[in-house]
Amino acid sequence: MSDVLSVVVPCYNEEEMLPISIPRLKDMLGSLMDKGKISPESFLLFVDDGSRDKTWEILCAAHEADESVRAVKLSANCGHQSALLAGLSVARESSDISVSIDCDLQDDVNAIETMVDRYHEGCEIVFGIRGSRKKDSFFKRSTAQGFYRLLASMGVKTVYNHADFRLMSKKAMDELSEYKETNLYLRGLIPLLGLKTGEVVYERGEREAGESKYPLKKMIALALNGITSFSIKPIRLVMHLGFWVLLVCLAAAIYAFVSYIGGNVEKGWTSLILSIWFLGGIQLLSLGIIGEYVGKIYSESKHRPLYHIETVLEKGE
Ligand code: UDP
Ligand code: MG
After folding, report:
1. For atom 8 of ligand 1, which residue has the closest CA?
2. 189-228: per-residue pLDDT in tens?
């Protein structure tokens, strides 16, 4: 008996993209079934992340027409990462392998077959790696690559040029469910699972319909979350900074003392005001970084659920 594959697709206001994505994903699923690589029970699982457009209506109609299309509706917009986790936790109940892919299909649907092959070769997790980012805008490409470098310099283990297009076995999904964090950054968590991994390189395409649901604000929030959830280096940096600023102050004090002895005392207003601002700035910055971590402790300590599922469209409904 071959394995049941679920394809988890988070969707936020994707009414323009869904009519293209649903048939394309269904074709891919059908062809893998025909080749006997996955079970005929395999299914697509769309997660409606609190969309305000016709996303849910489209999903309901698709489910009515074909039971291999399933859907989960979250009661509010919880963000891509939480929507993905919600999908994985529902998919885990009835599948042996799960692939997550964005609704805009910028990630290559055909790479899923290779992912399944790697799984059959013994990999528990298969990462989709973007071969090049030629199709991304210059801004998106440079900010994303800068971010990966920054994460690496902070000591966070990530897979270069991998976003959330990946295959996970049941075992990997089970292990992931043991992680109870509220500040979710899946790309950082999954390499921690310590399971056998593989990679599939693909070319990333352009979004065919609708707009990016990841504006700069959400991108910065994801990046900050990625750093502060996995690294305490920023706090250390603040400490180092404080040390160097103190050294500079000491040097300035020696200079002032020497000038005083030499008799050419300056009025000193500029240096005074500058140092007040400088130190004030550093203190605020440090407080901000510390506050970020304290905030994390606060939100983690509440153990609040990340999402609330409103409806699930399952087989036989
Ligand atoms: N998405 C989501 N919730 C959000 C924002 C985005 O579920 O709050 C989904 C979106 O529908 C898409 C995926 O996350 O399937 C990635 O978003 P998008 O393609 O817009 O991001 P980009 O490729 O521009 O980074
Ligand atoms: Mg996209």
Report:
1. 79
2. 998 898 999 999 999 888 899 999 988 888 888 888 888 8
Would the pLDDT of 296 be above 70?
yes
pTM value > 0.90: no
CA dihedral 84, 88, 90, 91 (to 10 degrees): 130
Q: What is the DSSP string of 65-108?
A: H-TTEEEEEESS---HHHHHHHHHHHHHHH-SEEEE--TT--S-
Whose tokens are 């300590």? That residue is 301
Site to probe by mutation for ligand 1, drawn from 13, 73, 104, 187 as the one with most ligand atoms within 8 Å of Cβ, is 104
Ligand with an atom nearest the CA of residue 212? 1
> Are 236 and 163 a contacting pair, CB within 8 Å?
no
| Closest ligand 1 atom to Cα of 9 | 15
Indicate the helix (H) or strand (E) that contains 117.
helix 111-120
The closest residue, in CA terms, to atom 14 on ligand 1 is 80
Question: How many Å lie between the centroid of ligand 1 and the Cα of residue 218?
Answer: 10
List the end-to-end C-alpha distance of the chain, in Å, as a whole number. 25
Two tokens at 90? 């529902």
Better-predicted residue by pLDDT, 267 or 141 = 141
